[in-house]
Design a protein that fits this description.
This protein is mainly α. The chain has eight helices and two strands, in the order H-E-E-H-H-H-H-H-H-H. Strand 1 and strand 2 form a beta hairpin. It is elongated, with a radius of gyration of 25 Å.
């Protein structure tokens, strides 16, 4: 994807420009964290608050881009590199929107954090499901159960099932905007239900393909009586 790095720098520059434009309207001590009831419960000097998120975004982009390069199965990444890089961009866009919400809140334009985070996570969960569907065996990306890592067919079936389940359940995150007091439980449900379902399905499909103890992988043996009978016939 030739536009990956230009897109990364574009998102970071947009965040820095937003900080610069609103800087004069920001208080010396900015609210940077909120509880489930959308009440600010954490703050930071504005000199740090306007820069920390763009810096984190840039660091995260480099980390996620280069980390798979040490994967022993890194050659498999070529099959879904575009989807992976798009996922990184979606994640960075989500962080940029959170950064903008923090700036606007402190400048006097109240946008509920629960609304921003809920909508953003719904998109991330949905695209993470698309990424899992496209993934090939590796040690960093996708649903990596012990059985999926043992068999490419099990990997494919596990990630297709888990990816579709993530996409199906991703709208659950949206309910956090309407029920902020239950927000944590709603997000956990959107994460854990696909994870548990994919884990169980991966075990089941492995057993279906290989048998309870992997009998299909065992070489066939000939009993001693059959071996003697075969030697007698050969004489």
């Amino acid at each position: 994807m030739k536009l990956f790095w230009p897109s990364v720098f574009g998102i970071v520059v947009f965040s820095l420009l937003a900080s610069a434009v609103l800087y004069s309207q920001l208080p010396p001590l900015m609210s940077t964290h909120w509880n489930a009831a959308n009440q600010a419960n954490g703050n930071m000097p504005k000199e740090w608050a306007v820069l920390i998120m763009p810096a984190m975004m840039l660091f995260l982009a480099f980390l996620l881009y280069f980390l798979p390069k040490i994967d022993p199965l890194k050659h498999n990444l070529d099959a879904f590199r575009t989807q992976y890089q798009n996922f990184i961009l979606v994640l960075l866009a989500f962080l940029a929107i959170i950064h903008l919400q923090i700036l606007l809140w402190n400048a006097g334009f109240i946008i509920l954090p629960s609304l921003v985070v809920s909508v953003g996570l719904a998109f991330i969960f949905f695209y993470a499901g698309k990424l899992c569907e496209a993934s090939k065996p590796n040690y960093f990306i996708g649903i990596r159960t012990p059985w999926a890592l043992q068999d490419p067919k099990v990997w494919e079936e596990t990630n297709k099932f888990g990816g579709r389940l993530m996409q199906l359940l991703s709208p659950l995150a949206l309910f956090g905007a309407f029920y902020p007091n239950q927000y944590i439980f709603i997000v956990l449900a959107a994460v854990l239900l696909p994870a548990i379902g994919a884990f169980a399905y991966s075990y089941w499909i492995y057993q279906k393909i290989h048998g309870p103890r992997g009998e299909q992988n065992k070489p066939k043996t000939i009993s001693k009586s059959k071996a003697r009978a075969k030697r007698r016939r050969s004489r």
